Structure formats: structure tokens, C-alpha cells
Amino acid sequence: MRNDARALLEKLSRQDFRYKQFEDPYTDMELWPVFEALLKDERISGKGERREEAPRAPEPRRPAAQARRAPQSAKPAGSFLGQYSAPQPSPANEPGRAQTEAVDLRRFLGKLGQAKS
Amino acid sequence: MTVISVHSPKGGSGTTLIAARLAMSFAGRGRPVTLIDYTRQDTLKLHFGMVPSQTIQPWQGAEADAPVIGGVRLVKGYGSRMAAEQLVQDFSGGDTSQLFIFDISSSNLELRHEISRFADFNLCVLEPSPADLTSLTLLDEGQSIRELQNFGVVLNRVDEQYKLSRHCRRFLAELLGEQYFGIVRRDEAVNEALAQFEVLEKFAPQSVVLRDVTALTNMIEAHLKGEPGVSTEGADTATRRAV
Ligand SMILES: Nc1ncnc2c1ncn2[C@@H]1O[C@H](COP(=O)(O)OP(=O)(O)OP(=O)(O)O)[C@@H](O)[C@H]1O
Ligand SMILES: [Mg+2]
């Protein structure tokens, strides 16, 4: 049991609670369409470039603060991604980029599926 | 002198709570903090134990009030004739250890933009909901979210018993990488404290909100010092690291 839960139960001096920890097993991750839509939206992820390689503009005030880690390379997509076909063109994306985005989306979701909680 | 802006493209996601808690958290670490309220609601003061009838007049230079509560100086920016940057100059008085935190209305994207030009860090508060995530698309007209500098997102009112809450958290962590600044969990004690006109530390010292904001403060401090991000897992990892 987590410490904060134990502290709370003690504070309330209640015994009639059932404790359940909501860990996220990897299989629990669902591919909500809103995630997919936002992932493909260039106002979120930027134009054209792959998310992992997006260059950053020079920082005006605090260059040191931007020492960012190199992102880990994406792992292959998990099996649950089989349900994804090529994405539909959306208003924010030209249809011509659909193919690259499909790859990026799969890479992204693959990472999501394999991310440690 | 350090400037932090707190804003959300979506109203009601907890900007005011986070701004108030961050101010108290930094003040608790010995930093002189000025918290500038740029919202119309006038509810920021409640987080400091003030009552509805107590008002703070908009700052117009001399002769306005700016009470100091728990080490935080409260300034009303909304309704002030002065520009935000000038307000900072007025109060800093050349003291470089001063920290300024802005609570900005969700609809005031213009002010968000103006302050982001001189802010050292811009915190965006979202709730784990489709509407909040979608509102990110309209945050900045010029740049995509991933290109924004000195920008971070904290997910507020997370409740892990709900699937979508858990999934939004994982999604944002992965999507944003080092722009992800973790979570602040939902705790009804926040509202109960306000109803009692008490500060949260006194009303509910065990509140998860206090723990989560401590972790958030650690992450922001690390960012301000120019340290590389700790992890895409955000505040949770920062907590572990701080132990
Ligand atoms: N982590 C939390 N746990 C519980 N209640 C919360 C939490 N965060 C915010 N609240 C409550 O949710 C409500 C909205 O929060 P708040 O006023 O901070 O949002 P806001 O983004 O500033 O809203 P607005 O856009 O109107 O300025 C308040 O009643 C607040 O007490
Ligand atoms: Mg507010």
C-alpha cells in the first residue's frame, strides 16, 4: 500500500475501505481517436519534421536551460497497433504526408505501449 | 529576477490553484515571491485564506495595496493601467532573487504571449480531458507546441481511478518529452480548505496536491537552473529523485 493511502486511512481511522492501486498495465493503453488526431496535428507536433527530430529555435534568454537529452530511439510498434491503417487526411495535414505520418504514429504508439509507468 | 507564467488555453483547469500553490512552495524555500493576479474572478486570494469581502485594488503604482501572506506578495494586475513587464520592474527593485508568478486568464492569449516574451518559464495547466488536450492546438499561432521554448505542461486534477485520466497522462508524457512537467492529483481538500478560508497546508497537511506541487517545484527549479530534464515521467520521478 502506498504511504499516502496508508496515512489517509489512518487519519480517517476507517477500516471499511478497499485498497486498489491503479497501475497501468501496458495492455491497458487505449488508442483514443483524439490522441491520434492531436498527434497528427501540426499545431502540436510541428510541420513536416518527425517529432523526435524537430529542431529548436535559438533560445533568447536561457540557452543553458535548453540542454535537452537526445530522445531515445523508438522501438517497434506493439501488436495492438495492428488495428491502425494509414491515417485519414485531416484538415490540419495535407494528404501527401499521410504515409510518413502513418509511420511516425506507429512509432509513437509503439513507444507509448512500451513506456514504463 | 525570475518570471514564471501560469496559463491554460482551457478555462477552469486549475491555473489559479497551481499559481497559488507554486507561489507558496517557492516562498517556503526562502524565495521572495510576488504573485500577480491577471484574472477577473478574484479567487486567487482565497488560496491564501482571504475572505471574499477582502479585495486587493489593481496596482497603479504608488498607494495601492499588495498584502504579503505566507511570504507571498499578492498584486492585482487585472485592471491595472501598467504593462506586465513594468509591473515586474516596479516590484523587483533590482533584487535578482525575486520570483514573479503570473496567473493569466485562459482567454487572454494576448497577455500570455506578451509575458512569454520575458518569462523564464511558461507553465501550461491542463486537465486530463479531450477538451483540454484539444485546446492546446490554439495556444500559439506562430509555433507548434513542441517548438515552444521554456514551456511545460502540468496535468492537474488527475484521478487515476479513471481510465482516460491515466491514458491522457501517458499520452502527454510521451508526446511532450521534456515539456511534460508531471501531474497534480485531484483532492477535494483543495475546495474544503477554500470553504474554511484556510490555507491547504493547515487544513490538509497530507494532501497529495502539496506533494505533487513540491515535485513540480523541483522540476521547475531544475529547468530554471538549466539542468537537463529528469524524465518524461515528470513530477513522479522528481519526487523520487528529491527523496
Ligand atoms: N488538483 C485539484 N484537486 C481538487 N480541486 C481542484 C484541483 N485543482 C483545481 N481544483 C478546483 O477546481 C476549480 C477550478 O480551479 P481554478 O479556479 O484554479 O481553475 P482556473 O483554471 O484558474 O479557472 P479559470 O479559467 O476560471 O481562471 C476550483 O474550485 C479549484 O478549487
Ligand atoms: Mg483562474
From TrEMBL, chain A:
Biased composition, class Low complexity, residue ranges: 63-72
Domain of life from the UniProt record: Bacteria
Organism whose genome encodes this protein: Hyphomonas pacifica
Compositionally biased region (Basic and acidic residues): 43-62
Identification of the protein by name: Uncharacterized protein
Residue segments, region Disordered: 43-117
Automatic annotation (TrEMBL), chain B:
Coiled-coil residues: none
Domain CobQ/CobB/MinD/ParA nucleotide binding: 4-196
Stored Gene3D superfamilies: P-loop containing nucleotide triphosphate hydrolases
Originating species: Hyphomonas pacifica
Pfam families associated with the record: CbiA
InterPro entries per UniProt: CobQ/CobB/MinD/ParA_Nub-bd_dom (IPR002586), P-loop_NTPase (IPR027417)
The protein's name: CobQ/CobB/MinD/ParA nucleotide binding domain-containing protein
